[in-house]
Amino acid sequence: MNYKDLVEKALKAKENAYAPYSKFKVGAALLSNKEEVFTGCNVENASFGLTNCAERTAIFKAVSDGKKDFKAIALASDSDKIITPCGACRQVLLEFGPHIDVVMANNKGEYKVNKVMDLIPNGFDTEYLEEENKK
Ligand SMILES: O=c1ccn([C@H]2C[C@H](O)[C@@H](CO)O2)c(=O)[nH]1
Ligand SMILES: [Zn+2]
């Protein structure tokens, strides 16, 4: 699937966002290496800190369906401004690969692309824990 279509899926997923507190609706569409698409939206909570972002919702849906290899994730909100993932989502994306393309879009479907590794340079990854387990 091309990135323009993936962005369209993110924009559609945004409509399911549960964002009564921020009113900031976000949608994500995660593309697996087998061309499957997993969508997600932000899910807020009266206890604000429990909010789950759209990106993590999509990743957790995919992983719980047994998928762990991803090519790209698109995200979009209602804003004219291109949205970028928060730090928590960058970290969660890194777990599944520094080479995943993050397709960051605005409400018109215009987008820019960065790899996860460029969005979270020197991120904490699984290699540190593997080293520890070898001891
Ligand atoms: O990349 C982002 C940035 C923010 N949000 C959500 C979290 C919260 O519900 C609302 C405002 O921060 O937007 C996302 O889902 N993804
Ligand atoms: Zn986030």
TrEMBL record:
Cofactor(s) in the UniProt record: Zn(2+)
Domain CMP/dCMP-type deaminase intervals: 1-127
InterPro entries assigned to the protein according to its UniProt record, in alphabetical order: APOBEC/CMP_deaminase_Zn-bd (IPR016192), CMP_dCMP_dom (IPR002125), Cyt/Deoxycyt_deaminase (IPR050202), Cyt_deam_tetra (IPR006262), Cytidine_deaminase-like (IPR016193)
Function: This enzyme scavenges exogenous and endogenous cytidine and 2'-deoxycytidine for UMP synthesis.
Pfam family of the protein (one): dCMP_cyt_deam_1
Lineage, uppermost ranks: Bacteria, Bacillati, Bacillota, Clostridia, Eubacteriales
One GO CC annotation: cytosol
Residues noted as binding Zn(2+) in the record, renumbered to the chain: 53, 86, 89
GO BP of this protein: nucleobase-containing small molecule metabolic process; pyrimidine-containing compound metabolic process
GO MF entry, a single one: zinc ion binding
Family the entry assigns: Belongs to the cytidine and deoxycytidylate deaminase family.
Catalyzed reactions per annotation: cytidine + H2O + H(+) = uridine + NH4(+); 2'-deoxycytidine + H2O + H(+) = 2'-deoxyuridine + NH4(+)
Stretches of the chain forming a coiled coil according to its record: none
Active site: 55 (proton donor)
Keywords from the named record: Hydrolase, Metal-binding, Zinc
Broad class of enzyme this protein falls into: hydrolase
Name used for this protein in its record: Cytidine deaminase
